[in-house]
Structures are given as structure tokens and as C-alpha cells.
Amino acid sequence: MSGAFNRTDSRADDGRPTVQELQGDNPLAQAAKRWWLREKPAKFNPELLKTEIYDVIEKENFGYKALLVLENLQFLEKFLWPNFSENASNYHVIMVALMINVKRREGVPIWDHLSSPPSNFSILFRRILSMGIDTTIPLSIRTHLLSFIVTAFQSLDSGLVRKECAALVSISIWNNLSSEDVRNEQLDKHTQTRKAWRAAGKRFDAADDTTKIRLRFERAWLYQMTLGFLNMIHGSSKSELSPKEVLVYCERFIELLTDLESQLPTRRYINTMLKDLNVLTAIKLSSLYANSDDGIIRDLYKLLEHFVYFSIDDITGDQLSQEDVRKIQNTRLAKLQRIAFKHFKEKLTILALANYGNIGQRDELTSHLTELTDEELFNLCKLLGIRTTYPKSVLFTVNREFLIEAILCTHERRKTFQDQTRAMTVLPNEKTLLETRMIGEGNYDGTRPLPLPKLNLQYLTVGDFLWRSFILYRHEAFYGIRRNIEDALKRLSPKIKYPSMETTFHGFAKMALIINRPSIMEVLPPKVGEEKPATVRAEVSLDLSRLSKDVREGWENLRSDDVVFLLAIKGVDDSDRMITNGGADRLNMAERYGIKSLRAADVVQILDSQGRPLRVSDQQVRRSDGQVRLHLHLDTDMYKLDSDNIKDGKPDIYDSINLIIRRKGRENNFRPILESIQELTQSDAPMPAWLQEVFLGYGDPAGATNLPNRPKTVDFRDTFIDWSHLVESFAGVEITPKDNTPEGCAPPYVISENFAMVEQSQPNKKRRRNHADAVTQTNTSLGVSTYKLPNMGPYPMDQLRKNTTRYTPTQVEAIRSGTNPGLTVIVGPPGTGKTDVATQIISNLYHNFPNQRTLLVAHSNQALNQLFEKITALDIDERHLLRLGHGEDGLATSNNFSKQGRVESFMDNRARFLAEVDRLAICLRAPGAHGDSCETAGYFNSVYVLPAWQKFETAITAAGLTADQTHQAYPFNEYFSNAPSPMFPNGCSAEDALEIAHGGYRHIKKIFSELEDIRPFELLRTPRDRQNYLLVKEARIIAMTSTHAAIKRRDITKLGFYYDNIVMEEAAQITEIETFIPLALQRPVNGELPLQRIVLCGDHYQNSPILQNIPLKQYANLDQSLFARFIRLNVPFINLDKQGRARPSIADLYAWRYKDLGHLPSLDQQPEYQIANAGFRHEFQFINVDDYKGVGEQEPTSHFVQNLGEAEYAVAIYQYMRLLGYPRDKVTILTPYVGQRALIRDVLNRRCAKNPIFGMPHIVTTVDKYQGEQNDYVILSLVRTKRVGYLRDIRRMTVALSRARLGMYVLGRKEVFSSCYELSEAFRRLLQSKCDKLELVTGEMFPTQRKPGDKVESTEMDSVEHIGQYVYEMTNTKLEAMKAARGGITVPAIMEDENEDEDIDAEGDEEEEEEAVMQDGEAME
Questions:
Q1: What secondary structure, in 3-state letters, does 1186-1228 show?
Q2: Is the pTM of this model over 0.85?
Q3: What 3-state class would DSSP assign to 655?
Q4: How far is residue 351 from each of residues 365, 369, 409, measured CA to CA in Å?
Q5: How far is residue 1289's CA from residue 1281's CA, in Å, rounded to a whole number?
Q6: Between 780 and 1246, whose confidence is greater?
Q7: Is 884 left (phi over 0), alpha (psi -120 to 50) or beta?
Q8: pLDDT over 90 (residue 1143)
Q9: CA distance 1365 to 1360
Q10: In degrees rounded to 5, what are phi and psi of residue 319?
Q11: Are strands 1335-1336 and 1300-1308 parallel, antiparallel or unpaired?
């Protein structure tokens, strides 16, 4: 088992400090009270820092818990950094580095604490660099310092850090190359490299002595560190140092080298130096590499090798094609052959004449080199430019083995990242699924690096990003599968039965069934060029007769392409398990449950006992008699391997398969997503050219924003309410009416922008080499014109729908930016209307660019449906709207916008419009069956309607007609006789009459236009063909979730789907790869993706993407969103700055997180904001909840955290509100924990569900699930009483505090949360001038007339018992009053209809526990 993971019996967060440890007798806590956690901090004493702090944690071997105690005590912020100076001791420096490492592990902000003064950070950094190469400092300390440096190089978005790191990886490090010839060879490759080298030399020559010392240190630091590392990795067996410490240090140093190689600015020059030093050769030949027990260092070596030889030009950053890589490799081999022929003709003639394909293979080349003597090998290396000598300080010997490996390392042909990705399977087996080094057997303790690529601030190429994403997402997917399988096996409890040695299962799991051997039905021969079978079809018989109805339906509802898992389980014997060295906890998953093999398979179909498919349609499934047959497609790669093993005499694993396991549908979409990423890695142009530089993190951050092809004129239609709205939206910009437009006219407004072209004087330093100087457009004034909206007809359906939102200037800026080509990033704090902004952008694009198509993407169905519903309310033709995915069922619209629903709508419209054609034909006295089809309607339009209209136009053109004459001449009077009001009202002017006539004709034209669009659906006969045509040709606004885009990417691209714009909601909650895939749902046109606009809306100050595998979050940054990375890269963004959701007092709880977040003036005008919350003294309040019956938080099962006292308190507040008359649909109960949600639901079901007075609240859910939602009143239970838990992430607390509009009541333990540094500002505001006991106002009913801030008497609730008794008495009083009002008739105790439409689901313990484990952050506590 990997040492990077620690397994323990205790709960996942028992190692974290509790409040008692932070405030009790702990020596570190006592020191904090004496020195910095006091009203006036004591005078700093360096000696006491060592004796009272450093010595204490040193005795604990710098244990993570002790460091966490110090970090939670605000040691860095209040003591270490305020007292840091250039005279600080080494202990002081070490402690700062340790605190930074802890903060990095905890995922809390780091560098802001060290930003003032900047000069001190420079001093700190130099001290750490110096101590890192000081061999007199203990190795364990140098490892911690090395971790600090790793963290620094991962934080290049900080200018403070970047300034210090850049000097360490500049071209000056080429002073350390082995020879002048090697250096000149590199300098001659690119002109700009030679210029940079000369500039560095001039800078050094011009420096004073002090500066020269600093420059020498900077250019030699990494070189010296690398030499020290080589000594350590080769001398580990002879060294007096602890082997474990040496191993950890070497692994961490390889991590540093990998990080440097994986970003272009740090890679550009160091890659040459590392190749020159033969670092890969030295690592591979070391004893540490050969003798590693767990293999982590070997995996780290492979990762470093991957990046060292990644297919990219180190200087320009251009990705090399596979052909380019082949040419470079062949050039290198040609040089070897020329040298071999010229200098070693006698021994290497065969090598000199061999083809490149042969000598590029390691074994073949080795066989040739063995012919040479040691001296000849030495000379060959010198001729090839391979280093053969090292400084005297290097202890290892450059022997024959080293020289051969160096030659092989330089000349062997390696797989490209495309080859590597193509070769990896997307379906797991027992080996890949149970690999503990990669996935983690327990909790990642962070002491050792993981052999995984990281998602960084920058990527080498788009292909590099896709390769990393594929590796990481595959681990995340396999981790989820592993957890589901382990849960099922735990419930099944497989045992070995003696003496028969049969496997028996002593439990039950609804996601698993015991089966017999699968029957192989069909094996198709391999495709051309492949060895594995094309398809392997198998059948498994399932007995569902003994299952409950809901479990049986779960199996019967399996869909085609669902992935199931076939396992061979032997079972275990408890007595054997307990005598295992170290006990049961030392066993891995396979040993704990006796897993012998695992194979994945795709569902083809499920049949009943008569052989009939159960699934009739996508929505309809027949029920079976309990006996079903499951047809599967087996994993062909593994079947080929299994077949080969059988030929070699090994047993057939399919004979031992005895279990099938399924997963929930929402968790089981990993295969198409992995296949989508896999396909994209093979693509040449997966990204628009204008976005690529910014996406990779290089070039001008604004390079994708200010594109030169922005339109000069944009019709903003209903964006502006009136002229004053237009003027206030462009404050400081000159607005000039154009084309005789009167100032002050009504909308719509067509805005033309006048630009001045400005060339940047100084190119951005972050630009890649050869990047052209940018030319930007500076807006100088706006021209405004208007037009009259056309009359569209006399019917209500013809009337245009208009926006009624008065957008703020910042919102208008976002709308304007989103309408222009390029990238738009919109940061939307809670309640600032980012969905409204996105809706208006879509509307403007729809009307301004009628030939363009827009893709809408969101992370959740909920957010996507909210956006889509707002779009349907605007003036957008419904026939151009399409909602893909199963989430369409949740749309609160009268029409069905799914593919099937849209096709049905088209066919319904066809019948309706053809009926209108028949009616029009009767009115025009046109005989014939004109309404038989779209085709006959088209003929009718051209033969009868158009001539009639042309005749009318001729009549009105020949002579000026009066309104009456226009009416009389109008050919369609009879047709419009059924209009709700007379088409030509009495007294209308001739001009108005003419416009009315044109409006009627527009109505008729629209009928024939829509029939023309419907005609293909008339010709296409199958539902699939009609749906595909709808997607590819007809729909102009297409909505889908990011998951649906990833799952269906292959099918969508095959159809030839294209789009011009993409608008993404919840962008900060979507992982980078899930954001990327929707950008690549179409094939390139002329080598480029035709994407013109990308609009990202989100809030990086709220929750980030949620992962199951916490190491992938902590170490590999898989929870990084593209939205947040763009913000880190300083890509221009628009920050919406006016919120209109919450009372200003409630918004103040989180407004401090955002820059200049204000409030909409409309909040002062809406009546609900002008009255107080009935029955409560405060609009919001924190209520301190003490232990209930002597108990605070509990954790009955892992990650299932509950607090009965807070649950009872939350329900009591809800009951109190209902007794006062608050509508139940206006109240939401939130909690961060699934366990607490289940407990609150239990209490509600007991106390409220069937009581006619209370009923159930609108929803009870977790904070994470409620992001993006809101309600008038929110009751929040924080649960924790020992430690803060994952609520320490201020982003999650921001979500929690921003869900309420009118009232927020927070239940928690004051001492726990108010002492947390990250939450201190939020809780300072939450607790300001308020009692921490709930203050109720008696004698009020909802709604009250009391104003916020009015003085009023209140009653304090001292405890859970107090408010419970108070509510009990109120309830009895109300029951008596209701009884009296009914003439003495007792009020029914059961509500018959109150709960029929409830959102609350009573879920079983199994579902609650599974979801609890999935909660973001819980597994790391």
C-alpha cells in the first residue's frame, strides 16, 4: 500500500484540532494566549519563538496536527509575519515556510498574508533558497523548505511570487551547461534566444559587486539543488541519513522538476539544463529507483520523463505535430549514424546503415552499443554532446552503464501523448481500479507527492491540457466506481464457507446481484489493423423475483450503454484476516473482500423470460415476471487478454464470475466522457485560434477580449427601457443621435461605436516569442439611431415581448461585451442578475445575427432551466429553441422543448397552419386542396397570396389612399375578421392604416415561412431523422448541461452540428475539462473551429467544482475551473456590482467578499423590504446552540454528521413561523451536511408533516445543492461543535449566507466559528450588536406593519428546550382557538392533502450515507 496514504480506524477528521485543543491546556494554545491572541500582543522574543513553539513541534516531528493547531491559532498572521525582518532567525524562516505549506494543504489563501511589506517577502524567499542548499540543515527541514518552493512555483499568478521565481529559471542558468558547444547549439536554434543571452550577459557585466553575487546565486541555485539531489539519490544506501527522509526529499524534488517542466515560462531554459545533466538517466540508475517498495518514485520518474520529452518547442511554445516529432527524432538518429560511420566504422557499421525504425528501439540500439569499449563510449558521448563529466562535488560515478543509458535516453523513440492516451482503456479492471498509488486507499496525508499531473495556471499546449485532464478524470471516475463497488461488497459481506470453500454472501445490496457464469453468445472478428475482437456479446441471467418493487425497477430500468461490472469474488475468512500482519486495516480492498477479477461491460438490452425487450421506448419500460436476461457487450481489450491467458494454460476468469454490480445513472456516465476527452487528444484543432493563447495562459490576457472584428453597429432592441436609461448606462461617453434621430426618443436603439486604433507601445512580457504587437480599439463616442418596431399582426400572439428589467451600467457593459465577438467573463455575486444578463445577451445575438446559432451550457439542470425559462419569456421564436437532456422535464413552461417535444410541436403547428391556409383560401375564393401539405401551401402562396398582395401594393403606390380606401382595397379583410378587435379602427390615419395592412401581411408571411421550415419534417419519416434535422438545421438556441455535452459529443459532432456562440452559466462550478468539451462540439472548418463568442458567467467566490477523490483536489487541482483560472490570469472580467436579492443588512454579511457590491435602488421601493420579519426582533441573527442533552455533533457513520439540538431548534423556528402565518413555501432549511439534512427531515416528519397547522417547508437540503437558489426566509444549521469542518472554506459559507432575501437565522456554536480566521469577518458581521440567543417579538402575526429598526420588546430563547416549550404552548393555544372557531369541533390531527405535492423525499439510510461521502471536502477532514 502506498505510503502517500494513511489508513486509520478513526473518523476522517479526528486528526484536526478541536475547539478545546485550541483553547485548552495545549502548550501551543497557551503560548498563543500569552503572546499574540490578546488585546495587545506581547513584545516579540526570538528566543521564545524557539523554546515555546519550534522546540514543541520539533519534538512532535513537525506533525501535521501540531502545525494545524498553530495555523488555526493565526500564528502566521498575528505573530510570525508581523515580526519578520531581515534579522529573523532560521527558526523564524522555517516556521513561516511550514505555515505556508499547511495553508496550501488546507486550500486557504496564502500569499496575501506575506504581501506587506514586499521587501520582506523577498528576504524570506532568498533565505529559504539559501537554506535549501545548506547541507548542515537537517534533511527533514530542507524537505519542508522544498515544499514551500514547490508551492511558490505553483502560484505564478501572484506578482509577489512570480518576481522571485522568474530569476531562478532565466536564460542565465545556461551558464551551467557542460560546454560552450552545447550552449551555442541551443542559442543558434532561435535568434531571440541569442538576443536574450547577450542581454543577460550585459546585465551581469553592468552590475555592481553586490548585484553580481545575487545574479550568480540565482543562476546557480537550481543547478546546485539538482547536483545535491543526484548525490542524494545515488548515495542513499551509503548515507547516514534516514532512508525514509531521503526518499521523501527525492520524491519532492522530482515533483519540483516536473512542475517546472510542465509550464512554458519555467520550462523554457531549464529543460535544456536537465537534459544536459542527464537527470533522467541518473534517476533511473539510482538505487532508490530500483529498490522503491511502493514504486511511487518510478511513477514520478515516468511523469518527469513525459514532460521533459513533451512534443513542444521549448522556446516558441509551438506544439509539435507527430510528423515534427518524427523529423526531430530522425535528425537526432542521423547525427548518431554519421558519427558512428565516421569515428567507429569498424564496430558500428551496421548501426550506421540501419533504418531509423530499428535503431530508435531501445533493445536494438543497446545491442549495437555493447560492441564499444568504455573509452569508445566515452568518446561517442562527447561527440554527441552528452555530458560525461560532473563537478567534483558529485559523488556518483559516470560508468559504462550510465553512458549507455544516457545515449538510449537521448535517442530512443518515445510514445507521444496522443499514443499514450489512445492506448489507455476507459473501462476499469481489477488492476487499474485497485491501484492505491493513484487513487488512494485511505486519506491522503500530503507528506509525499503523487505520480499525477497537475492542472496548473498554464499549460504547454491544448493537447497537454487534454492529456492531463484525461489522466485525472479517469482517476476520479475509477475512484467513484471503486467506492460504489466497495460499498456493495461491504453490504454483501462475502465469506468463505468451510469445508466446501464456496463463496457465500451474508448480506444484501440493492446495487448488486449474485449471478452464474456469463454466457458468451458472439465474438466478432477483429477490425482491420486490430487484434482485439470487434464485439463480444454475452448474456447474464438475473433473478429479480425476491427483490422489492423499487429495487427490481432499478434493474429493469437499465438503459442501453449503461456500464455494469462483473466480479469474481472469493470471499474472506475472518480468522485469516485478523492474523494478517498489522490487522485488518493493513489489507487493501481486494484482500478485504476476496476480489479475484473485475470486468466492465455495456448493457445492450434487457429481456424478459420470453425474450422480449423490457424497454419499449425511451420513456416506457415494461415490468418483468422476475426472471430477466441481460445482454452485454464485454470489454474487448480485456477479453483478448483473458483469451490469451487461457491459451497459456491459465484459468478462465469468466468461470469464477459470480456477482454483477450496477451504478446509479447520474454517476455512470464516465465512459462517454472519457472517450470524448480521448478523441479530443487526437484532434489537431480543438480550440478557436483567437482563444488558444489566452486559454494556455500566455500572451496578452486581453487578447481574446478585444477582437478586431467586432461589429460597428448593434441593435440593442429592448435592452434599454428609455433614453435616460441609455444615458445613465454609458456615463462619461458622448452619445450622439444619428440619422435624424431625435434626442430623448423611445427604444429600440441601434448603437454604433466610433473607435480610435491604438497600437500597444510595449508588448506584454508574458507573450510568447514571435507574438505580434497588438492593436487595440479605444471607444471615443457612441452614435444612436432608432426605428419603429413593425406591426406583426392583429392577434395577441403577434405582439412583441419586451424586456422590463432596468439594467445597471455594469450589466449593460456585460451585455454589450457579450454581444461583441471574443471572450466575455462575467463575475456575478449573489443576486446581481447574471442570469438576466445572459438572457439579454442571447436575445441580442438572436436578433442581430439571424444566421448564427448559440449554445447554452450550465453545470446543473436547475440553473439551465432557470436560464431557459427566462429566454422563453423574451421575443424569441419558440421554434428556434431546443433543450437537450433529461432535465427538460423540470422546465416550468407550457410547451415541451425537448427534441421529441419540438418535433411534435412542429407537426402540431403544421396542422394548425395548414388549417389557416385552408381558411385563407376560402377567403380568397381559391378552389382546391391547398392545405393538404406544406408543398401545396407553398404553391398556394405563390399563385394566390403573393399576387393579391402585389396588386394591393400597386394600388396604394399609384395614388395616395385614405385609411378607408386602404381598408377597402386590402385583400385579406375577410381572413382577419376573427381578430379580437377591428383590424382598422375608426379614425386611424392613412399612415397607420398602411402599417396595419403590412402587419397583417407579416402575419400571413410568417405562416408560410414556418410551413416552409416545417416541410423537411413532412418529408422525413422517422422520429430520429426529424430530431436530428431539428438539432442541425432548425434550432438556433440549444441548451444542454456540461455533462450532456460530454456524454453526447461523439453523436453530436457526427451529425455536423455547428454553432457560433456559447453562453455558459455556473462556469465557476464546472471543471476545466467539462468547460472545454462544449467548446469543441463541432468539427473544424478550414482547420479552425468557427466559434465566435464565448460568454462565461459565474462566481469564483462561491463553490468550486465538487470532487469525490480529495487527493485529486488537494494535490492535482482537479477542482480548478476555467473561469477561476481566467480570473487568476488577469483576463478582463466584468464584475456585476448591484444586488437586488437580499435586504441590504443581509447582503452585508457577504458583500465584503466582493469589490464595491452595492444594492439596487428598487430594494427601497418594494414593500416586503420595508417591513420587519414578524415575530423576530432581527432580520438576521446567529443563535448559539449549546449541547442538547449533553451532546453536540455526532457522527453515527463516517461523514454522516448530525446535531440533534440544532435539528430540533431549526424545526422549532419553522413551527414558530408557521404559527405566525408565514407561508411554508417561503421557508427553506439549509445545512452543510447530508446527515443533518436527514435528521431535520426526520424531525419534520414527526412534528410537522401530518399536522395541518405546520406542513413541510419549501425544501430541506444542503448548502451545496441550493447554490443558485433563493427563498424569502432561510434557517441555517451549521452542525459542528468541535471543529469548523469544511465550512472553513469561505466560498461555501458565502453560498450559505446569500440564499435568503428577507430573513436569515443561523444555528451554530459561536466559539467554533467565530474563532476561525477565514470566517472571522463574516461572523463579526453576523454577531455585531446582537445577542446570540434568539430574540422573538410576541404579539405579532405575519405580515407585520413594524418597520426594520423600530424599537420593540423581545423575549430571549435560552435553549432548545425553551423554544420547544414556547412553540408547544403556542400550538396548544392555536388549536384551542381553532376548536372554538369551529364550534367546539376538534381540529383533525392528520392533513389529508397538504403533503401531496411536497418536494421532500424520505430517502433511506443507504442513499443518505452515499451522498454524505460525496460531499466536497468532507473526506479530507
A1: CCECCECCEEEECCEEECHHHHHHHHHHHHHHHHHCCCHHHEE
A2: yes
A3: helix
A4: 8, 9, 17
A5: 17
A6: 1246
A7: beta
A8: yes
A9: 9
A10: -70, 135
A11: unpaired
